[in-house]
Automatic annotation (TrEMBL):
The lineage of its organism: Bacteria, Bacillati, Bacillota, Bacilli, Bacillales. The chain crosses the membrane at residues 9-31, 37-60, 80-104, 124-148. It holds the Pfam family DUF2798. This is DUF2798 domain-containing protein. Keywords: Membrane, Transmembrane, Transmembrane helix. It comes from the Bacteria. The keyword Transmembrane helix applies. InterPro entries: DUF2798.
Length: 160
């Protein structure tokens, strides 16, 4: 996996690109506004979401997920356990923050509804978690790790 800051940034870009693209599309369909929004509006919201997700990944959630994982009492030589733990904490943290972002964007775009903000947040969180967990663990995580190790890191070895 990433061995330095540059590789961490590239890995984060790849992961955030995939996750934000799928999760943003999913959320547009879930709230039923995909037909009502203009391309410009969707582009702005997705770009804001991508920038926020990348910043959270690199500076808040990512480091915290790693810190928690390496503080847990399990055999760290088992790489699969390390990856699964980091991924699980990343999913929880990113869904927590990005659901808040989604709530704010919904509020800005549609205003308050008859539901409480806490109730709306809980609903958004659960719906996002239901998709983010398998998406990260079964699709994006393995795909990005495969591409990263076989394209990015392999090309780095060829250049040197």
């Amino acid at each position: 996996m990433p061995t330095n800051k540059k590789e961490s940034f590239i890995f984060g870009l790849m992961m955030c690109s995939g996750m934000v693209a799928v999760m943003a599309s999913y959320n547009l369909f879930v709230i039923g506004t995909v037909e009502e929004l203009t391309f410009h509006t969707v582009l702005i919201e997705v770009m804001c979401g991508f920038v926020l997700a990348l910043l959270l990944d690199l500076f808040v959630v990512g480091p915290l997920a790693k810190k928690i994982t390496f503080a847990l009492p399990f055999d760290k030589s088992k790489k699969l356990l390390v990856v699964l733990n980091i991924s699980a904490f990343m999913i929880l943290g990113m869904v927590f923050f990005m659901s808040l972002f989604g709530l704010v964007m919904t509020y800005v775009g549609q205003g308050l509804s008859e539901y409480s903000m806490l109730g709306m947040y809980g609903t958004i969180f659960i719906k996002n978690f239901i998709l983010a967990l398998p998406l990260q663990l079964l699709v994006m995580g393995p795909l990005v790790r495969f591409v990263f190790t076989n394209v990015i890191q392999k090309n780095k070895a060829v250049v040197h």
